[in-house]
DNA sequence: GAGCTACTGAAACAGTCGTGTCAGTGGGCG
DNA sequence: CGCCCACTGACACGACTGTTTCAGTAGCTC
């Protein structure tokens, strides 16, 4: 049914991983087959052969990035967990991950893909932003106690939590001022629980 | 001193305005001179002549977009105002503007430029994200009462306000779910003032 | 009228893009 | 051995890209 339902071959995942590392430092916007192939020790011919087309490669790269994202989310909000940790602790822990300098490249790539998918909803980028919002809202919902999770107020609270995380991340990526931005997130957490 | 300190000619601002309208609907990422020129009734030759290069044109377009942004900010936080309206009201009013459907294209363009300037800080896009964060923080500072404005807590509060606005905007652009996102912003406002 | 400035059209330049063609390689398995 | 299959190199195709060259044209001032 899908155009690429076949299990990826060993060589395919090897090249995808190399291309992913390349994309993390060079960005996806002006990604070009020839420079990429030269950098990862391959050739445009092979990339086209393995991924079908450049669009296919980009789709694979976006899926790869999303896998990293989902792996992060799984650490905090495994939907079927016994006891939920609550939104406050979830935001706290997620922010620690987002603010870590070693994750900057991935988050820049994420921002790039997100923005691009807003401008042109069709093609390889299509739906990335939408998908990522749903991923995160679901994960945050998994962190809320059941009583809070359902109902309008629960939706509102996790939407707000996501907004704070995303907005703070944008600020951090632009200014690199971790002290100021982290202080803002902390400020939110103190007001978020009580009241 | 600057490479383009000359006052823009009438024809230049006319074409810039047309190109700006084009960029608002088509995005900046894969902007190309020939299709753009054809759409606005000009020619690649003329665009190069008037703006020096494609980079010059992109820079002019980004400056044009920033002008729109600064015009918005001026409406809320004119730095030398007699009485400050406070962060809560500022966020409230700014959000009303951001959530208006007719501003969607501008905000998509903004997100695109922001993300791109994160990935490649050099070139025409360079520094856009950084500049825009400073613009907004300054504007929000202008809305805070003087006693709150200075000091660490004031900085933290306006950083948080900006993060909520930006994060909510990202959500809105991706999901178009104005009711949910606006509810989240409102929720924040009730907690923001009191406590 | 001459001369200057601002703008414009047509065509071509060198380069890069994604992709297709054709001919192989090497290894596992019958 | 021979066959197949995943993979690969060299190369060319056509369609773009930003930019340049050359040759203007309108309008203004002197």
From TrEMBL, chains A, B:
Pfam families in the record: TetR_N
Record InterPro entries: Homeodomain-like_sf, HTH_TetR
Keyword list, A-Z: DNA-binding
HTH tetR-type domain residues: 15-61
TM spans (from-to): none
Name of the molecule in the record: TetR family transcriptional regulator
């Amino acid at each position: 049914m899908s155009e690429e339902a076949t299990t990826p071959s060993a060589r395919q995942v090897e090249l995808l991983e190399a291309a992913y590392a390349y994309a993390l430092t060079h960005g996806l916007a002006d990604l070009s087959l020839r420079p990429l192939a030269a950098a990862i020790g391959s050739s445009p011919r092979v990339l086209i052969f393995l991924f079908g087309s450049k669009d296919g490669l980009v789709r694979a790269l976006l899926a790869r990035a999303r896998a990293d994202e989902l792996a992060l989310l799984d650490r905090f909000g495994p939907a079927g967990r016994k006891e939920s940790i609550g939104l406050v602790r979830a935001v706290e822990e997620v922010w620690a991950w987002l603010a870590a300098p070693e994750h900057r490249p991935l988050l820049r790539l994420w921002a790039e893909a997100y923005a691009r998918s807003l401008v042109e909803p069709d093609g390889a980028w299509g739906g990335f932003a939408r998908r990522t919002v749903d991923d995160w809202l679901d994960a945050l919902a998994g962190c809320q106690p059941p009583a809070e999770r359902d109902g309008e107020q629960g939706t509102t609270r996790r939407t707000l939590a996501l907004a704070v995380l995303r907005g703070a991340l944008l600020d951090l990526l632009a200014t690199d001022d971790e002290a100021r931005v982290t202080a803002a997130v902390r400020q939110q957490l103190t007001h978020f629980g009580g009241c």
